[in-house]
Amino acid sequence: MTSLTEAVRRSAMVCILTVPATMTSHDLMKLLAPFNDVTEHMKIIRDSTPNQYMVLLKFCSQGASLPVMELTELPKCTVCLERMDESVNGILTTLCNHSFHSQCLQRWDDATTTRLKPTGLTALCASRCPVCRYCQTPEPVEENKCFECGVQENLWICLICGHIGCGRYVSRHAHKHFEETQHTYAMQLTNHRVWDYAGDNYVHRLVASKTDGKMVQYECEGDTCHAEKIDALQLEYSYLLTSQLESQRIYWENKIVHLEKETTEEMNNMKVKFKETLERCDNLERRSGEMGKEKQAMEKKCTQLQTRVSKLSQELKEEQEMNRCLRANQTQLQSQLAEEERKGKETGE
C-alpha cells in the first residue's frame, strides 16, 4: 500500500474493490471513458462474494507499478483486428483472459438473452465476452440466510429438502437439521463443496478453478484411473443417487402424511366447532323466542299500569278540585259565622 503522508512515489495501479453486479462492463467503460487516454489497462476480478466484482486499473502517467498477475495479452483485438502493444491505452481484460480495446468493446454492445432460474424469466446480459461468450459481471442473486438464526455466513444447503442452515462453527443449525431428519448430504453455498455427515468428510468430485471460479473435473494422476476404478466410481455415484432419491422420497412422503394428518385434525376441529356453533345458534334462537314472549308480557303489563296511572291521575284531579271547593265553602262559612257573632254582640248591648 502506498503511503499518502511520506514522500514516496505513488503506484500507478488502483483497485475498485466493490462494483455492483447491476453495472455491466459496458457501463463501467462508459463511466471511465473520460480517462481512456491515461488508462493503460483494466482487469475484471471476481471472487465468491455475491452481487459484486472488482476492477484493477493501471494508469500510464504515474510511474512504474507491479505487473498484473495471470495476464494474457492477445496480439490483436478481436473486434478491430489491430495489434495491441504497450503504447495502446484503454485495454480491458475480461475474466476469461481475453483483452480488447475499451472503445471497440463499447461499440460491440452485444446483448445476449439469458434465462434466469428458477423463475424461468429472461433477462439481457450485456457483458459477455465476444470470443468465448462468458458472462463477466455476476448475475444478481438473492442473499441467502440461515432459516433459524438469520446469519449470512458459512451457510450449508441440504441436498434433500433445500433447508439452509449455518455451519458447525456458528450455531450448528445445519448439523441439527441432519440430526433431526437424517439428511446426510449438504452443500456449502460459497464453494459448492458437498459434505457427508455420516462419513464426516467431503464427497464431491468437482473442484472450482482458482482463475474464473468455474467447476472443473478433478483429474487423476498418471494411469491410475483404470476401467475398474471408473466402474467403481459409477457404482458409487449410482448408489449415492439411489440412496438420496430414496431418502428424498421417504422424506416427502412423510411430509405429505404429516400434512394429511394435520389437515384431518384441522377438519375434525372445524366440524366440532361448527357443531358447537349450530348448538349455540339454536340456544340463541330459543332464548330469543322466550325473550320475545317476555317482552310482549311486559308490554301488556306496562299498558295496564299506564291505564291505571291515568285513572288514578284523573281521580287525583277530581279529589283536588273537591278539596278546593270544600276549603272555599269552609272559608265562606267561617266569615258568615264571624259576621253573625258580631251582630249578636251588638244586639245584646
TrEMBL record:
Residues 328-337 have a biased composition (Polar residues). CDD domains: RING-H2_BRAP2. SUPFAM superfamilies: RING/U-box. Residues 130-222 form the UBP-type domain. SMART domains: RING, ZnF_UBP. GO terms for biological process: protein ubiquitination; Ras protein signal transduction. GO terms for molecular function: nuclear localization sequence binding; ubiquitin protein ligase activity; zinc ion binding. This is BRCA1-associated protein. It comes from Liparis tanakae (Tanaka's snailfish). The lineage of its organism: Eukaryota, Metazoa, Chordata, Craniata, Vertebrata. The gene is BRAP_0.
